[in-house]
Design a protein that fits this description.
Layout: H1 8-29, H2 36-49, E1 53-57, H3 60-70, E2 78-81, H4 88-95, E3 99-102, E4 125-129, H5 140-149, E5 156-158, E6 166-167, E7 170-171, E8 178-182, E9 196-200, H6 203-213, E10 217-219, E11 222-223, H7 234-268, E12 271-272, E13 286-289, H8 293-302, H9 331-339, E14 340-343, H10 351-364
Parallel strand pairs: 2-3, 2-4, 5-8
Antiparallel strand pairs: 1-9, 6-7, 8-9, 10-11, 12-13, 13-14
The structure holds pyridoxal-5'-phosphate.
Length: 365
């Protein structure tokens, strides 16, 4: 039997009564857009992260776009970010006519290398957008410190993969000016469609984000600014509310499973992504580094072990972004893109399946 890459079925089986009850409640009250579950979720998520404001939005991509719009990003502005991420991180910058300035990553964590950021700051730098990749926060204090030295440049954490992780006792999404996450079904906290959320402690930014989310509307049919159709629908909020009930338990399990994977990989001599001691990862992906990746993936597939690559090409080498950066200016991201491979990971992964996966990889090295 194939080991699921992410086991959403096992989670659904456990949470089925709560999920069904939540869905039925929405069907009964019929407020599919901005129903009571939207505010209920925002209050619970703000409490969870310790942030003053949570603004639910249509997706993680929309969370990033609305954040940049609220910060007033305009054509010609530069945003410092990592090329080793999902395309949405850079896409929203380019959509606003701004320029992503790519900074290379750390070879062990795969997160942006905070020490390289300062050299890329110019008078046009209007934000820094680190990504907390694979579920582990980037070096947020170091990044905030660089931003502070240059006149408090806003820092947006792309926490699409890291909701629920911690950094020096604070929660991801509440580590900088703005935190953005995604509830894409495969994320650590996922819904059954698209969804996302923005977190901030800044009242003015939160107000702007709430308006931009609804077509820039400050009152009904008063469009104070240009916005988007960026709401998260009530049904998706209801599903996240049901899943929140088990989320703390799931985080504990993810920590345990991640630690066991680390041990098994270290014993087997498999190179893996490293976690720093001052933060936790929610292991949105468990990622190792191998040579001859394609043939290993094929053989693992024949053993019913699915794998995935996050990400095969750094964004500065993608056709649509090639003109924005010299092709070889982020060599570490380039090397990682050729070698990273993610293996099955979810809160319900069994000890036996984990050992089987690691043994299979070891046998192929
Ligand atoms: C790092 C990162 N940023 C942004 C996104 C976009 O999130 P969504 O798919 O909810 O739009 C993702 C989702 O895969 C992601 O992994």
């Amino acid at each position: 039997m194939t080991i699921p890459f992410i086991d959403l079925q096992a989670q659904y089986q456990v949470l089925q009564p709560q999920i069904q009850e939540r869905i039925n409640r929405v069907l009964e009250h019929g407020q599919y857009i901005m129903g009571p579950e939207v505010l209920e979720l925002e209050v619970k998520l703000a409490t969870f992260t310790g942030s003053k404001h949570c603004i639910s939005v249509a997706s993680g991509t929309e969370a990033l776009l609305i954040s940049l719009m609220a910060l007033g990003i305009k054509p010609g502005d530069e945003i410092i970010t990592t090329p080793f991420t999902f395309v949405a991180t850079a896409e929203v910058i380019v959509l606003l006519g701004a320029k992503p300035v790519f900074v290379d990553v750390e070879p062990d964590t795969c997160n942006i290398d905070a020490r390289l950021i300062e050299a890329k700051i110019t008078p046009r730098t209007k934000a820094i957008m680190p990504v907390s990749l694979y579920g582990q926060p980037a070096d947020m204090d170091e990044i905030n410190a660089v931003a502070a030295r240059y006149g408090d440049i806003p820092v947006i954490e792309d926490a699409a993969q890291s909701f629920g992780s911690t950094y020096r006792d604070k929660k991801s999404c509440n580590l900088s000016t703005v935190g953005c996450t995604s509830f894409f079904p495969s994320k650590p906290l996922g819904c059954y469609g698209d969804g996302g959320a923005i977190f901030t402690n800044d009242d003015a930014l939160a107000k702007a984000m709430r308006e931009i989310r609804v077509h820039g509307q400050s009152q009904r049919y008063v469009h104070t600014r240009v916005g988007v159709g960026g709401r998260m629908d009530t049904l998706q909020c209801a599903i996240v509310l049901a899943k929140l009930e088990r989320f703390d338990w799931e985080i504990e399990r993810r920590l345990e499973i991640g630690a066991r994977y680390n041990e098994l990989c270290d014993e087997a001599g498999i190179e893996r992504v490293v976690q720093r001691s001052d933060r936790t990862s929610v292991f949105a992906q468990y990622t190792v580094r191998v040579n001859h990746r394609e043939s290993i993936q094929e053989k693992l597939k024949s053993f019913n072990i699915p794998t995935a690559v996050h990400y095969p090409v750094p964004l500065n080498l993608q056709p649509a972004y090639l003109h924005l950066c010299c092709p070889d200016c982020t060599p570490i991201a380039g090397n990682l893109a050729e070698r990273v491979m993610s293996v099955p990971m979810s809160a319900d992964l069994s000890v036996a399946d984990q050992a089987h996966i690691v043994n299979a990889v070891k046998g192929l090295l």
